[in-house]
Amino acid sequence: MKKNNKITGQNLTARGEPFLWTMGGALAVGILMVVGFLCLVIVNGLTTFYPGPVYKLNLNNSKIIAGEPGRKETFKTDFAQADNSLAERTLYKTGNFDLYNEDYVWVAEYEINKLSAPQDIFFIERMEWGPFIGFIKALQLDKNRVEFNFLEKDIRLLEKEHQKALQRRKKILKIEKNGLGRINHLMEEKRLDLRRVEIKHGDQSKLYKLALQDYRKSLSELEIRYKKVQTKVEAEKNINDKFLLILEDVNGKEKIIKLSEIVRFYPANSITLFGKIKIYFSRWYEFLATRPREANTEGGVMPAIFGTVAMTLLMVVFVAPFGIMASLYLREYAKQGRMVSLVKICVNNLAGVPSIVYGVFGLGFFAYIIGGSIDNFFFQERLPNPVFGTGGILWASLTLALLTVPVVIVATEEALASVPTSLREGSLACGASKWQTIKNIVLPRAMPGILTGIILAMARGAGEVAPLMLVGVVKLAPELPVDGYFPFVHLERSFMHLGFHIFDVGFQSRNAEAGKPMVFVTTLLLIFLIGVMNAAAIYIRGRLKRKYLTGHF
Q1: HEC states along 466-524?
Q2: What's this model's pTM, rounded to 2 decimal places?
């Protein structure tokens, strides 16, 4: 029978329906993937800090563990009683790493003989060694030992002494930072002053000998001040050492820790809903406002937030003027021809270069060549220790500016092209010069499109990690790029970045399970920060659009 190929209204292929469905389906799949990813990050990120119950498990092999249950999964097993050789198991956060050399344990359901939730068991977060899960036996308050009987008055006493211990710890850290840190800074400055005189006049000159005498005198005075401050610190530490907490885990192992080494504690199974909410928000505050600890798997990410925002803003400062000026020349001044076309092709191709290549270029050109030259000219006294001749936030920002400049150039060119020619001609006909026309007519109306390019550049730059690993980002920065020492802003310093923090916690920490919650929380924070910066730029773009919406002719 002859096939009927006539195109009718019922022939879906001719009407393009399958292609329409395919394109719509592709869009739906893309949206679902993005929404699914965001839901995964948001759900895991927002629930990470919520305190859960702690269970005590008596296992069939007479082993006893206690921990906070986490995720569950089904796994294959040879155990005879398991249905179809499959069994359920749960990951418990057991803490007590210093006692058992592990802080997460998988427990299969068939291994549990008895499951209970002791009301007097505590979840104690420590400055070191992760959490301790167990019971409080007693408090050592100076020379007095107070037995802990899990009464309301005992808990209030513990909270009161804990707050006192935290205040002592803050005081010690403040003295060390402002006292010892400043004296060390002055010692280093004196040493550098002497070194400058040596380089300029030689170590046999009269000026150097006078400077050496002054240096020794100043150093002697600073050492006396250092010993006084150190004595004060030691005295505070000795007081701190007398306030202890005596703990015991579910197997009866005793552990003694200083009260000042405890971040927070709570009775995991008897805490109220209000108490859980309070713990939840205190963990968020710690995460956003403090420094990391425990190899970045605990504590906060404040230095990484600062580094990410500072680097992104610096990148915008570098990339925006350069990209806009290059686009203006190419669009408004350059004679259109093969050379301009070639430059545009090269700019477009730059957007496809792998980001790690920019990192290698930034390290070689910015850090080693330019930074090394700056060190040779201005910081000879510090050599062989480099100042600008190694990775830092300045070189990282410039490297990312190079990485994102094609985005700004292309977007700016399109924005300039969208300004009607009639506006230019009208301005020129009124007697305005070319620059006056660009400054007063073209640029204001192209600004929303230019800002769109800058927003895209910010989004890409803030999320890049590979080039930063070569030009300045580090696992843990000892000092922020901003401090109280002249010149107050230190663009040569290394910095922390949220993107690298995610990589470090997720793939380089000693315990992948301990790092997973921080990966989700940090990812959520990075997405939020990028969203906030983009929203601010979009708001400015919207205002400019409304401002220049009228006036076209």
Answers
A1: CCHHHHCECCCCCCCCECCCCCCECCCCCECCHHHHHHHHHHCCCCHHHHHHHHHHHHH
A2: 0.86
